Amino acid sequence: MSSLEAIGAEHIRVTYTKVFGQVRLGRPGLDGEEDRAYLAGTLRGQLQLLLEDLEGRAGDFHGEIRATADHVASRAREALAVEEAAVARDPEQLHDMAVLARSLLELCRLPRLPAPATQTPVLRCLP
Q: What is the pTM of this model?
């Protein structure tokens, strides 16, 4: 079972929407400490599973997509290094983790692409 199947892409989207729509824009609904703590834990779990899924597909990405995947994975690891309680107290941290989870989701959903050719074709000019 892949990470996407384990947590469900729709659950990630719902979490992202809740965090982005309410925390980032200051809308009511996440004022409670319990809500923020729940979201911090949910996002942490999503990031861990999605990182695992992405790392299992390391050979599937090349060029710019590979560079993007590496950058997002690095930022996700940095976010996971922050103490969960600190994330729950900081709406910006919640927002960042939600964006990272959504980014990892989209990277994990990319189709497997063939590796680029390792040799450049030789062009010959006819006389």
A: 0.77
Q: What are 65-71's contacts with CB under 8 Å, separation 24+? A: 65/107, 65/110, 65/113, 68/107, 69/107
Tokens 């959903």 belong to 109
The four Cα atoms 20, 25, 30, 36 give a dihedral, to 10 degrees, of 50
Check residue 48 and give left, alpha or beta (phi > 0: left; psi -120 to 50: alpha). Answer: alpha
With tokens 């690095």, the residue in question is 74
Amino acid occupying residue 9: A
**78-89 as b/e, with b when 16 or more CB fall inside 10 Å?**
ebbeeeeeebbe
Helices (H), 1-127: 3-7, 9-18, 33-56, 63-81, 84-89, 91-108
Has residue 34 got a pLDDT over 70?
A: yes
| pLDDT (0 to 100) of residue 102 | 92
CB atoms within 10 A of CB 112: 8
Quote the CA–CA distance of 65 and 106 in Å, as a whole number: 11
State how far the Cα of 2 lies from the Cα of 102, in Å rounded to an integer. 16
